[in-house]
Each structure stands twice: as structure tokens, then as C-alpha cells.
Amino acid sequence: MNIIQIHDHAVIKGKQEFPSISLALHVAQSPETILYLQTEDREKWKEALNTTYPVCLDASIVMKNLFDASFVEELIGSSISVSFPLGSHQAFQKLVSTMSEWSKQGVLRVRRKEKERKQPLHELLVSDLFNLSLAVGEMDRLCIRHSSIQDTEHVIVMIRFKNEAMGHYEFTISREAKPQLYAEWSGREGVVEYNSEDATPFTIEGDVTTSLSSPVAIAPVPFTDTHLKTLRSVHQLFDTSFNLVNGVK
Questions:
Q1: Does residue 105 sit in the same domain as residue 15?
Q2: Which domain-ending residue is among 53, 83, 113?
Q3: Which of 39, 111, 116, 201 has the fewest Cβ atoms within 10 angstroms?
Q4: What is the pTM of this model?
Q5: What is the C-alpha separation between 96 and 89, in angstroms, rounded?
Q6: Rounded Cα gap, residues 110 and 177, in angstroms
Q7: In this structure, are 199 and 92 located in the same domain?
Q8: Range of 172's domain?
Q9: Do 61 and 91 have their domain in common?
Q10: How many CB atoms neighbour CB 125 within 10 A?
Q11: Using one digit for the tens of pLDDT, what is the confidence trace for 169-226?
Q12: Is 216 helix (H, G, I), strand (E, B) or coil?
């Protein structure tokens, strides 16, 4: 798949930079192309939507404008999809796919490590929790702990879902960290897990083993009213569950 990134002042395909979307598309000349919006510029949106190619918006833009009525109305009224970081990881996609066939009585564990963050930590965490909610169900309660020591930030979130499932989510950001995703679901039907740090294949205990390739760059998801309500609900629950004095901004 060809991904053309559209920023405020640049259009990028691979290592090439173009002055316009049309020129980048002319060079790409491939039906397997997606236009990836990483800008709030509505004119860039219109230009992208005027093409015949699918258009996807980076989740960080949605998080930044989540309670902007005009922004949300335009997004939902368009054919633009949204790509969330956690939801774009191939391992998490496979995990969710397997979970969809199982009962939601169990425990979800997700641990992420990154070298840096490109958006406020608060928005990044809510974005990930939104994906967990889509996978398991509506969240009822969060217990959040945050620490920041020198160049390392660490967040732990304990989750109780309304269907009585439980969740344990950790996010570490450190210059010394190796990007990693660990995801596990323990339920009545068995245990599903993936650990990218150990290069462990995706496994279903007692069943089959399937190797996974590297994470995909983006995973477009149509953004509906239901998604909006879920995302806002998670955002509000996060705000009420966490004391900003602890340092998340």
C-alpha cells in the first residue's frame, strides 16, 4: 500500500516531498494508495476528498478537536476514516479478531513502550483506552498511576469494564526504551498473547500458532457517531479518574 502523508506544509510519499497532493498521486500512479491526513487544514481535507482515493485522518487530530462541534460534524459527515496508534498495530488487530469470537469474561493486559511521544500524553492514553473499550466493552472504572523520573514517563491503568472483565494497561516512554507491544487476553476459552519485544509469535494456547509480520503503519476505521460517543465517554472517565496534579498534561 502506498501512503501519502499530508501535513500542514508538505505532502510526503516515502522520502520524497511534493508541493501538492495531485503531483504526489501522479508520481505514485497506484490504485493501492491512501491519503493520510496529519493536518487540521480543511482545505487540505477538501483537496484529498476531491480525489478518488481513500482518505484517513491521524487520531491525534481527532483527539485535539474531540469537543469541537464543527470539527466533529465535518468529520462524521465526510468519508474520512481515522487511524489510531494501538488499533493500527497488526498484533493488536489479530488479538481483537480472536477475542471477537470469544466471551468477554476475562482479563486484558496491554503493555506499550516507546522512545518518544508526538502528542500530549493525556490524549495518547485516551486514544489507547478507546481501542481497549472497542475490544472489550464499555468501561466502568479506571484507577490510574503516573510517574515521571528524568526522561522516563510511566503510566499504569487498572480497568474495570461494565461486563465485569478486567484490564491492565501500561505505557512507558523513555529514550532508552525499545518500542514494544505486549498484548494478552485471558478468558474462558484460553489465552491469547503477543510479545513483540521477544519476537514471540502470536499464540493461542492449546490451539494454533500464527507468525505475524511487523506492525502496519495505519489502519483506517470509519468514524461513526458510536465511535464518537465511546471516545468521549472514555475521555470523560479518564478525566474524572485522574488527578492532573500527578503530571499528565
A1: no
A2: 83
A3: 116
A4: 0.85
A5: 11
A6: 16
A7: yes
A8: 86-217+224-246
A9: no
A10: 24
A11: 999 999 888 888 899 999 988 898 887 765 444 444 444 333 333 333 588 889 999 9
A12: coil
